[in-house]
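Morning F.,

Quick status update on the modeling queue. The single chain you submitted on Monday has been processed. Sequence for confirmation:
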Amino acid sequence: QVQLVESGGGLVQAGGSLRLSCAASGRTFSRNFMGWFRQAPEKEREFVAAITWNGGITYYADSVKGRFTISRDNAKSTVYLQMNSLKVEDTAVYFCALRNTYWSGNHYQSSLYDYWGQGTQVTVSS
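Structure tokens below.
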């Protein structure tokens, strides 16, 4: 019954910015843990960022640290990914994911997430 709907993807020049949004609906545990993953062509899915239920702790892959910021607005049941200083190698399909737990252990492991969005394409051109 849980659905995640993503928006905000598109085409942007290197050095530019995009903000992705992911709205959750349905019966979710209120203190849920959410994250972002991405998958480029012919590459495996990789962890990007994650955030605790109250936004108190955030996690980032080394490749995006300092450029991307994850945040959430629980009143709107929405998580965001602000992406700045985009690089061509950031091009991928970006997925948001949700775990029905407040626990942040092994946040980088995709198999531990319970629900996934449909994915949104981000293309960075040179």
